[in-house]
Every structure is written in C-alpha cells, then in structure tokens.
Amino acid sequence: MNRIPEPELMDGLEQSLAYEQANFSEVNEAFVSGFLKHFKVTHGANILDLGCGPAHIPCHLLTLRPDLQITGVDGSAPMLALARSRKSREGLGRLKLLEAILPLPCPVTPYDIILSNSLLHHLHDPSLLWDEIKRQGRPGTQLYIMDLLRPDTEQTAHDMVSTYASGEPDILRKDFFHSLRAAFRVPELQSQLKTSGLTQLQVVQVSDRHVCIKGVL
Fold first, then answer.
1. Is residue 1 part of a domain?
2. Domain count, the chain
3. Residue 107 per-residue DSSP state
C-alpha cells in the first residue's frame, strides 16, 4: 500500500475531544516505560515533546518524575486547550505548553531529551521533524520517537481498526485508518535518517502497528 498523507493538524474540536477521551493508556504507558527503560534520565532534565496533543504523555511522565522540565508543543489549538486543562487539574507547573508548527519559532535551548509520539505520520514532509531535532538538540541529546507503521494493504489497515478501535467513536476509527495509511515503513524511515545525517539512530518495529526511533545525537 502506497502512502496517502492525511491533514497535518487535528484541529477540529470534535476530533480533539474524541482523541482526548479515547483509551490510549496502554500505548502511552508503553511509550513512557520504554523511554525510561532505554535511557538514564538525569535529575532536572530539560525535555521537548513534539506533537504533545492533549499532553497525556508529558503529564504521566511528570507524575513519575516531577523533577523534570517538559515543553510540550502542538499545532492544534483545541488539543492544547485540553492539555492546559489537564495541566491545571494535575498541578503540573513544570510543564510548559507552546502552540506552534514545525519549524518552531522559539529559540534553541538546546534540550537534553527530545520525545515525539504519533507526530511523524501527520507530516507531509518528514524532514521537518528530523531538521527540528537537529536544531533543538546537541551532541548527547537523547531521542525517543514512536509512530504508527503503515500496513502492507488497506485491508490490513481495516482489520487493525476493527481489532484495536472497535469500541471507539466513528470519527476516531476513521482517523486511525487514515493515520495508518499515512504512516511510514521501516525502510522509508531508515532512508529519511540517512538523508538527514542521523544514521546513529535506531529504527525498531515494536508491534504490528508501531515503530520506535531512538538513540543519542
């Protein structure tokens, strides 16, 4: 199945609410636990989360490691409104939220750690992510990215929607299907990293529908 890009932003209110209310706890927990298992995170580390959405992952990470400083970035105003509500409810003062698209308008910090979950497949030009990582990182910056993996056929994509999103609202099921079609395959990701000069990063398929890109800049 060839890649079919989808809209870059989830900026509809209904769409954002459906995403916020969906049960992604297993996937989010796998992301956080995988990251903490793979890297030694120093006290007070400065983290950039690209495409944070409603901030499920940074909020969960801060409940486990309240010493961290996290900047969550997303281009969707409705998503960030949900993220700000969650931040307020949970009293997470060390979470900073920024509405922006790539390339980021903010000055380079640089960051100790760069995270991203399910952003890459939204980008029509994936080099935007790799270029921003190089701009916001430094030698030694740890990188942990997870994204969807494009199935071989549309029928497989439909089957995955039925398997993993059978109880979700129709709008979320449609989004999941379109996201699967917009995702990249492992050889495509490896080619992107080679073109971007990031061949030190490792691409690993971690489930039937997820891939992880990790390493140190």
1. no
2. 1
3. P
